Fold this sequence. Notes:
The complex is a heterotrimer. By secondary structure, chain B is α/β, with parallel strands linked by helices. Chain B has eleven helices and 22 strands.
Amino acid sequence: MDYHKVTEQELRRLREIIPEDRILTGEEIGEDYSHDELGGITNAPEVLIRVLSTEEISEIMKYANCQHIPVVVRGSGTGLVGASVALHGGIMLETTGMNRILELDTENLTVTVEPGVLLMELSQFAEENDFLYPPDPGEKSATIGGNISTNAGGMRAVKYGVTRDYVRGLTVVLPTGEVIKLGGKVVKNSSGYSLKDLMIGSEGTLGIITEAVLKLVALPKVSVSLLIPFADMDAALEAVPEIIKSKAVPTAIEFMERGTILFAEEYLGKKFPDSKSDAYILLTFDGNSLEQVERDYDTVAKLCIDRGALDVYIVDTDERKQSVWSARGAFLEAIKASTTAMDECDVVVPRNRVADFIKFTHQLAQEIGMRIPSFGHAGDGNLHVYLCRDEMEEKEWQKKLDTVFDAMYRKAEEYHGLVSGEHGIGFAKRRYLSRQYGEAQMRIMRGIKLAFDPNGILNPGKVV
Amino acid sequence: MSYLKINHDKITAENAEDLMKICPFSAITYENGRLEIGAGCKMCKMCVNKGPKGAIEFIKEEAPSVDKSLWKGITVFVEHDEGRIHPVTLELIGKARELAKVTGQPVYALFIGFNIEDQAKKLLFYGVDEVFLYDSPALKHFLILPYANVFTHFINQTKPSSILVGATHLGRSLAPRVAARFRTGLTADCTVLDMKENTDLVQIRPAFGGNIMAQIVTPRNRPQFCTVRYKIFSAPPKQETPRGRITRMEIEEKQLKDTMQVLDIIRKPKDIDISDADIIVAVGRGIKSQADLALAEELASLLGAQIACTRPLIEAGWFDAKHQIGLSGRTVKAKLIITLGISGSVQFAAGMRNSDCIVSVNKDKNAPIFDVAHYGFVGDLYEIVPAFIQQMKEEN
Amino acid sequence: MNILVCIKQVPGTSNVEVDPVTGVLKRDGVASKMNPYDLYSLELAMCLRQQHGGTVDVITMGPPQAKSSLLEAICMGADKGCLISDRRFGGADVVATSYTLSQGIRKMGQYDLILCGKQTTDGDTAQVGPETAEFLNIPHATNVQEITEAEDGFLTVRITMDGFAQVQKMPLPCLLTVEKNINTPRLPSYRRKCSVNPDGISVFSLADFEDKNEGHYGLSGSPTQVERIFPPEKNLSKEIYEGSGNELSQKLFDLLLQKKFI
């Protein structure tokens, strides 16, 4: 598609809307802005604008829409599928300056934020006010705008659900520059099509979120994790459906392999409290009293021991949580540091298929001759599988990458799983999405895109 | 024997309830109509002061006090490494002089080691009235029992009123041992010291992780011990001419014999994890090339600092991942961190914002690092750092 | 080798709020936990037991609730525990605490090695270890990083000193305080938790001690007195300097000098 280039003339007009010191061009734009966290795809925007308000964004969009200049929105740039990369150059709007927490409504139990507020800032703010914002994706320095745009999930999804479940209302600037308000502080809503829910997970292709009303819950007073060693991954993963069946409702069920733990030990320069066993699951329980939490975890601990767990370790104090969860938090970086290049697969499968799918990746790794470590949210079926290049030649790597991705997405499909659990489609996973969804679904999606963005200027080349 | 006395005639079911709530340690119980104070009691006296009047009384029966007039002088324990006097010693001598002015008592120094007489003379330039010297091959290295025996001998001979010890590793091992031997008070890590006219040493120290300050005295016992960390007080200026004298002390050989034995001294500094470092120089993308790291390294070595960096420098392969500060790296809590050319991403700031003193050098005055910095220097690190290094070298 | 580890129960969070008037901990919602520094000594003890055989026992002084820390230590692998608890120990300073502990240790029996954490998170004095060793009349070493050898009634230990490490030979019995971060403490085991008998913990009070003189314990046995408690001054300075390279470097020099970093 042909887009209009940003030249001196366009910059002059943009400077009328935005003060000059927030408009960066050419060399001034850091190299970071041409890729996201995984860096698979790279392209620099022609101009980077640090926006501060809905009105500014609206004015820029009106102009860009008229001039047919592509626009990409970027938060902290922690995405993994290239959704915030300016594929076609044009304008990049950086929202990290819109980082105010606007209102805490203790009567409606909502918090209203600008999109550049970071997840860690929001969760800290909520906790200071005795609330919990439950979505808990691993990347704490991501912006809320980004979280909403990918419908990020995170560790606590088993008990609390994902970002979508906590978005009550959105203020959105459409590609045409019009400003619309979707949803609100209301709890129920059956007023027409839910455009709010279309916006969530749309990865910056439909509109620009400039304000969000989020739901909060009361802060649980106590949380305890259990680290449960098993002799092998099969035994560990087979215990997970049983745990879910037991109705004990942990907030999180994560699984980890010994190999991944060893990478994290190496990366952090710190020993994990236990690395004797081949496979572990890590669960967290929260509640309002230690007694209640102990009751909950007791059931699961017994169940796991019956299912062959070697022991159940109790992770109850700040130090112990630190020693376990800091390793869990470093897995992505640790695997990244262990290899020359990597790519990731974020499939989600029904929870009773997790064990089968992981077994399949192990098999695949053997057959293809590629290292494929994984970890993830066993409790919600969302797996993070990493394909490591190690010493492969570029050609061999690309070829094997295609084969492995292809095989994994086919297997996920066979298990009635989906392409992405929480990282999104962006640029990297587009073809897998269209293959799985087929023409009818893709046609509807393209129609929706067209309805929001008739000129196709907003984040072109992504998702659909 | 001081104790809490429960006046049972004044206890009712209602005020018992109140008393149980008042006790911060849940030490008060009320069962079968009888109030009890349990082993959780820390004698905080909240129940006496805030409870129903007269229900619980504090009965104070003072143990007899020593005759304080028999104990005179303020002693500073000389911390040294094979004769090289640790600067905390001079800082304590300066403070001891101030304290001594209140009571008009002398300032002593206790110097234990081997071949240290020449070093002892240096102390006379800082206002010590008398240096007590225990010089013996057996005292070449620190071993707890011989050192404690020497300290004991010194106290018995000279009867000092107060003893100030540097809160070094050695001081924190030796001082409590000797204090326990005299069954007297020792207050650790004092930040303020003062002297009462009755020779009671007023000691102020942070408690509960610095959430509160406590003022502590040792009213009935002598000597009174305290430890003070390095760089809390200031060293006095060196005087033109020495004054005071050196007294060589002799102690029975058998007091110096011990089954403990020093096998080795390892000088090579251990690879300190930046999480534990007191002083850190952190570098970011403002450093233009790998060769320029030498600048930061020189600064770090002059300050005795560990070097750390941001994530992009790890990705560039300039550093090992163990040097990375930030959410995906280490969290540090340094006494001083100097950031050079770091814009201050949230990922980075989250890993260092709890440091005591944050000094940041960056060209861009709008950089977010200046939101977390206590002292921001808006300028070019390539101008500031070399000039600073130059000055450090000249001053030395 | 029979080892005794001294542990302490401390407030569960580091953000303890203190009443600025009374200096007393605000108890609302403050759970307790084992002093984090003790975890390293406990782990070291269990590693030594693995290498040399013997037992690892734990002792603590505190209110009846402190039993839970002993049980926690047993869940981590300790063999048995002992609580020293008596109202008459209340208000003890370092000397009185160390003396009480030494009496309890004597009562528990003969040990080859006594281990302590390097300090506690609530008191922060790092003095109880050395003072207890004095009252037990055995040698001690503080800030032990590693035990490299153990044989014939001797240990070879490496200890942290200022600017260097000292390797020394210690005769047994002795007391060591253990440096932090020298190992990764193991986690409490649920299996052990299920099998431990809470009544199996012995409790000693003053009546069980050899020295029953009340004047040696608690407030009465404490030479130090807290005269006053007050909130610390908050120093939240924030300064931004602009100027030439030379001006700024001078400013930086003055700042670091004033702050005693140079």
